[in-house]
Amino acid sequence: MTVSPGPLLLVFLLGLVVIPPTLAQDDSRYTKFLTQHHDAKPKGRDDRYCESMMKRRSLTSPCKDVNTFIHGNKGNIKAVCGANGNPYRENLRISKSPFQVTTCKHTGGSPRPPCRYRASAGFKHVVIACENGLPVHFDESFFNL
């Protein structure tokens, strides 16, 4: 009795169709995280920095209330999802070492542009959510404790 390759071929082809979009989706969440929260070498870390970065990163339609930029290389940030991080609360990781950060807070007024921000610079431990070893969400609430 011979077995037809049909069902096996179908499973293989479905795997090719289903897996790549899933991986691409993970990459897109990581890319969004980098766009919103990574700035390796900031030029100034004052209110003007926040206003220009928030606009440049398309975080001003509407004006985002709070956003933090992590200054450092991507590899060190990714490492929080592994060796440079510890579990924190539900499904989050906290960095073992502090990062240089700038937090931009909307100063109020209209949620529509032009947006005005107040900068707060410092070194802080960061709390992030990870998927497949990549950071995909920054937990702003950790800074408000």
Task: Please outline the helices and strands.
Layout: H1 6-37, H2 47-56, E1 66-71, H3 74-78, E2 85-88, E3 92-95, E4 99-106, E5 117-124, E6 127-131, E7 134-138
Give short descriptive properties of this protein.
145 residues, alpha+beta, four-stranded antiparallel beta sheet, 3 helices, 7 strands
- The N- to C-terminal Cα distance equals 69 Å
- Contiguous uncertain segments of 5+ residues: 7-24
Q: What composes the largest sheet? A: 4 strands, antiparallel
Helix content class: 25-40%
* Beta content: 25-35%
- C-alpha-based Rg, rounded: 20 Å
Strand order of the largest sheet: 2-3-6-7
Q: Count of DSSP E strands?
A: 7
Number of helix segments? 3
Please provide the ordered H/E string of secondary-structure elements. Answer: HHEHEEEEEE
Question: Overall mean pLDDT score?
Answer: 86
Which structural class should the secondary elements be placed in?
Answer: alpha+beta
Shape: globular
In short:
This protein is an alpha+beta fold. The protein is built from three helices and seven strands; from the N terminus they run H-H-E-H-E-E-E-E-E-E. A hairpin with a 3-residue loop joins strand 2 and strand 3.
Structural overview:
The chain is α+β, with helices and mostly antiparallel strands and 145 residues long. 32% of the residues lie in helices and 28% in strands. The protein contains three helices and seven strands. The strands form two sheets. The protein has a four-stranded antiparallel sheet.
